[in-house]
């Protein structure tokens, strides 16, 4: 089991933010953290201070983090399908993959934060259409990462005359795809068909996550996919580690490991700089999680 860090707050003064992000990334890598992600939103979340609080654009931030790391995987947790045209999104993710040396993961979901869409004038279709767009976006990204499929894409919502992506990704055969969310009829079905990883929130609890993974297994069987080839990640507040203590955290995560979860992604606790939280807690947690297999 590996540890990931998810950066959600950018509260430092503008003149200090760059150094704090670099310090967090460098501390995470030094501790052996295997994943670093940021939120992909236009506006900050209400529970983090609301739209008036700081929020950085995700992929520019990931590019910055790539320059301060050399081994951790990088991704957004997760990109809303409405935020960028699929062809542009594939190009952006590919650029991150090339410049990071093959460490990019495309994290994606159906989007949900209507205020930021309205605020910046971005179309926000009904939920059923967003899922249709999500599936077309996944197909477009896979097409753009296939060097032998440069022809047109003619979908219901997107039409591309060419699906060229040069330079191609460094990752072989392509960047990994993570789909966030636990919707049982649509989201987990898309995971089974298109994704390399799923992401669930461990606040759902052990029993509920186990049940959702059973649903994912059924979707995999329906499409002829080997369930064990899907990575299972869970994300949640870092207080599960820093508040409960390392021993309690290890015991709790061991139960998820038995379900097949291979990565736990923690949000550094509030009230302390993320870099300091990582320095204090990440190294010991990495060692404990590694022992879980």
Structure summarized in a few sentences:
This protein is of the alpha/beta class and 293 residues long.
Number of strands: 11
Number of helices: 10
How many separate domains?
Answer: 1
**Unreliable stretches covering 5 or more consecutive residues:** none
Oligomer: single chain
How much of the polypeptide forms β-strand, as a percent range? 15-25%
Rounded to an integer, what's the Rg over CA atoms?
19 Å
Describe the main β-sheet briefly: 8 strands, parallel, barrel
| Mean pLDDT across all amino acids | 97
The assigned structural class equals alpha/beta
What is the CATH third-level topology name? TIM Barrel
Assign the CATH superfamily: Luciferase-like domain
- Architecture, according to CATH? Alpha-Beta Barrel
Helix percentage range: 40-55%
Sequence of secondary-structure elements:
EHEHEEHEHHEEEHEHEHHEH
End-to-end gap: 5 Å
* Overall morphology: globular
CATH hierarchy class name: Alpha Beta
- Order of strands side by side in the largest beta sheet? 1-2-3-5-8-9-10-11
